[in-house]
Design goal:
- With 230 residues, this protein is of the alpha+beta class.
- The chain has one domain: Sandwich (Jelly Rolls), CATH 2.60.120.
- It is 14% helix and 31% strand.
- The strands form three sheets. A six-stranded antiparallel sheet has the order 2-10-6-13-4-3, covered by helices on one side. Strands 1, 7, 9, 11 and 12 form a five-stranded mixed sheet that branches.
Length: 230
Amino acid sequence: MSETLFFKCAKANPSLQIKSCKSAEFRQFGRVHDFKFPKIKEYLSTLPMPSQLGGETYIPEDHDLEKYVDECHYIRANLFGQVPCQIGSYVGQAYKLNALEYHKCSEILILTEAAVLLLASIWDLDNFTLNTSKMQAFFVEADSCIELYNTTLHFSPLAVTSRGIRQAVVQQQGTNTPKTEATQIVCPEDELLLERNKWVICHEEASFLTDAGAKVGLIGENLSLVQVKD
């Protein structure tokens, strides 16, 4: 069924040239892990989905996940190599690129629904701007565990169907939380630090981010995904 959904998604969005996250092209951006997380998946299925297209709810560290001790221990001890990390939750109906962010650590996504990731590399940046024509789109099957490297520019996964996206998000402790002090601007990259361990450039259409202080750095079309039925 996922292959059929991949075909439908690619057919409905020909301009994105969607590839599989299992393709060779994905290897510069991240990797697919084989481990499954049935208890975390069951918990994520209980989270309410925003009804409006584009709506999102994100908790950087979701303490309700802590009760799934065995699965959380594997994430911390194996996937994150026994260094402090946080396990958060995300539910959303994102369908537009809007922005790109990067962190100084890998990010692990445990997705229960199919998604499309719009990705680029920090090497694609030109004076901390990027033309969206350089973005690459990758289809992620439902029930996948995806690692994105720290050199990968990314933002919210785009929902392939009206079911939206439910995922656990694993990052270095403190990532995507409010800064503890004002940023001293010494070099251009400093202007991109929107939250702790979160450097962001956004599209001019993303007023919710510019209002929060994000720098406009995405040039060209604000890429979007047409949802399909499975």
